[in-house]
Amino acid sequence: MTPTHTPPTDEQRMTDHGTAVADGGQLTTDGGQLTTDGGQPAVDSEQHPDRPTILVPLEVLEGDALPAGIPALLANAHVVLLGYHVLPEQTATEQAREQFGKKAMSKLQRFADTLTEAGAIAETRLVFTHDKQTTIDRLIYEYDCLAVLVPNSVERLDSVLVAVRGTVGIGRNTRLVAGLFAGTDIGVTLYHILGDDGLEDDAETLLNGVRSELVDRGMDRDAIDTLVEKSSEQTAIDSIAELGETHDAVVMGETDPSVTTFVFGMPSEQVAERFLGPVLVVQRARPTAEDETEADEGGGPEEPLSDDHSD
């Protein structure tokens, strides 16, 4: 892509080749940050339906390389690499862009090159913001991201733990797991914690159904194990963290708000303490206009966020 003139804004996008392009539109405010109104993702995810779109937030002014193992983990993904820097309230975004923008864009370009060399399709966004979570939420929605990665490092990638809570969101979970790991040598363990009133046979049926869907999406059945455990005094997060120690990465859903709070609401060092490897958080399906109309009218399905398994 031919480089274009870049207007004075705090936010820039790069294509998978790392070329900076400007978001079109007028400047607006979003959670205390300057951004542009009317910009569209540079890569059309519909052109790559088998590649899950994953948002990777990185504090761009910290560290000089991507965490170890992340390029291999995301080799089959469409990666939206968000380089962000959180500013003190009294610091203007224009000031930060002028001071750090060139250095930050250069680093993001190197990161994007590393991802594309591993096989990923990557585009990059640079944001100076006063509100990290607002920025992450906005880009999840803008790019219709299937998952968000907490990019902890991993030395090698042999096995992945996939926490399965229930039937809600199964289609999105299997799209992510198969999209990343079908055709690789990586093993997957499907994990379900049995509730107090749950039946083990029902849990095994659930996990066997998930395994069958992963096989339908191209995974090797022999590469997929299942594990059902009865609930204990530990919280679900504690159980997943403990079992995660025997795996290299963890996939979990956003269905339970406590999961999102755990991953994004705690200091990164506490997350790293419990999840030593990278964590992929599968996002809820975006409600359609029809869903919102039905909700306003008090109707609609009992589980509006569940998948119909047709995606």
Topology:
Elements: E1 12-14, E2 20-21, E3 27-30, E4 33-36, E5 53-59, H1 70-73, E6 78-86, H2 93-118, E7 121-129, H3 132-143, E8 147-150, E9 159-163, H4 170-181, E10 187-194, H5 200-216, E11 224-230, H6 236-244, E12 249-253, H7 257-264, H8 268-274, E13 279-282, H9 289-296
Parallel strand pairs: 5-6, 5-8, 6-7, 9-10, 9-12, 10-11, 12-13
Antiparallel strand pairs: 1-2, 1-7, 3-4, 8-13
Q: What would you note in describing this structure?
A:
Helix 2 (93-118) links the parallel strand 6 (78-86) and strand 7 (121-129). The model is unreliable at 1-10, 12-40, 264-272 and 298-311 (pLDDT under 50). Helix 4 (170-181) packs across helix 5 (200-216). The chain has 9 helices and 13 strands. Helices cover 33% and strands 23% of the residues. The chain has 2 domains: 12-145, Rossmann fold, CATH 3.40.50; 159-287, Rossmann fold (3-Layer(aba) Sandwich), CATH 3.40.50.620. The protein is α/β, with parallel strands linked by helices.
Quick synopsis:
The protein has helices spanning 70-73, 93-118, 132-143, 170-181, 200-216, 236-244, 257-264, 268-274, 289-296, and strands at residues 12-14, 20-21, 27-30, 33-36, 53-59, 78-86, 121-129, 147-150, 159-163, 187-194, 224-230, 249-253, 279-282. With 311 residues, the chain is an alpha/beta fold.
